[in-house]
Amino acid sequence: MNAEAIASPVPSAASPRTGGSLSIEGVGAAFPRPGGTLAVLDSVDLEVAPGEVVALIGANGSGKSTLLRVVAGLLAPTTGRVALDGVAITQPDPAIGLVFQEPRLLPWRSVAANIEYPLQLAGWPRPRRAERLAELLDLIDLREFATARPSQLSGGMRQRAALARALALQPRLLLLDEPFSALDALTRERLNVELLDLWQRTGTSALVVTHSIPEAIFLADRVAVLSARPGRIVADLPVNLPRPRRLDALDEAVVSPLAREIRRHLEAAA
Amino acid sequence: MTAATGAQPRTGAVAASRLLPVAAALVIAIALWKAIVVIGGYPVFILPAPETVAARFVAAWTDGTIWPHFAATAGEVVLGFAVGALVALVIGYALARSALVERVVSPYLVAAQATPILALAPLLALWFGTGLLGKVLICALIVFFPIAVSTMVGIRSVDAGLLELGRSFRATRRQILITLEVPAALPSILGGMRVGVTLAVVGAIVGEWAGAERGLGVLINVARGSLFDIPLMFATLLTVALFGIVLYVLIVIVERRLVGSR
Predict the structure, then answer these.
(1) Nearest residue in chain B measured CA to CA from A166
(2) Less Cβ around it within 10 Å: N or C end of chain A?
(3) B164: nearest CA in chain A?
């Protein structure tokens, strides 16, 4: 082993910055509807420490996606505020990467051009874009599919391309909205393992919305449980499992009671 | 592209087997035409035989009878299509993105479309003369509607998820237009252009009938009336039809190049 490898075990290109700290303070969201308003979120408080992965779990319609949109700066909250590293988020921010439930790739662009898309929008010059693209293709291991169209990829591959795109601008916070929920169980497990590996290499903070208890436990440092509408955080539970984690080597003595507790909170809040 | 290219058969034999039915249908159509002429015993000034028309077509193209008329019509069609399509793209986009524009403008669009172009042509000839301008306007008018509607529909059906994606990357209005809306709406827009380009030929001929010195429409009238050269009239009609087909195929080729690989 040479000295350089010891000095930087993490690829330098992948971790130029450390994770950001997110604070969600008293965020409420309500939408007008015929005959009144629909309260979707009710004073949500949640912190994500630098480099931490927090899973947000809740029943359907509990406002998980709404909360993610508020954090992404796509939706203004009715009350409260969201801040990344102390700076209020009032509009989409390049420091926040977003992965949607669907890949949302542009069907007329190649995989490479899709991953490059945020760089193009941000006005990066061509050579710098190509350099960053090469890093991303290596990071997500998509090099051999660079020139393929999204329609030629499997669902899992598409979502990986979407992940690469979300990482393009080197975000300090990654928001994932049930990113693999449309995929089959095996692909989903494999991508969750990849996601953890990726997260470890990039060091970004992450907020993952999910409605799967095993997924939440596998991925996160903490699991926050959102109540039924209007959503509130009803539990914030630490996951005391060592990293790196492996699917076949999770400590059942930790997982089972934790899963039961999450389920209890979900059911109590429903 | 990469993976799927190998699976697409694109050999000469396949191309030939695809062209064969087309050629066969053409041969059958010409044979039918010939049969009608022979069995019906029609004189040449009612229905000339296919070989008579073919001979006249070749002669009229080689001796320079058709060329100046074709050039005039082609100029009107190309200019008229360009002007009509350009205005239609802008108005179609505005219709899709502004409810106010749709409420205010769409009644006039429908009224303009519902008024037969045949009735409008003499009026436009009166206002703008029998030169190029009047024909370009008629072509533009007839081309406008299908392209405006297809643009509107195309822009409206752009995936909201993609627009949100653009917003999440702080795309400007202009970036959203160029990188999302236009590419996403392109198949629909080109569909409208396919219809529009054939209508443009109709518009030019109608415009020429309302008054012109040159053009395929003029030649049709002259061949039938003062020259009483019915084979020439058919040769001119054939020219019009072929021109329409060529324009249509051009749009299809553009379409294949722009959206074929999705």
Answers:
(1) B169
(2) N
(3) A74
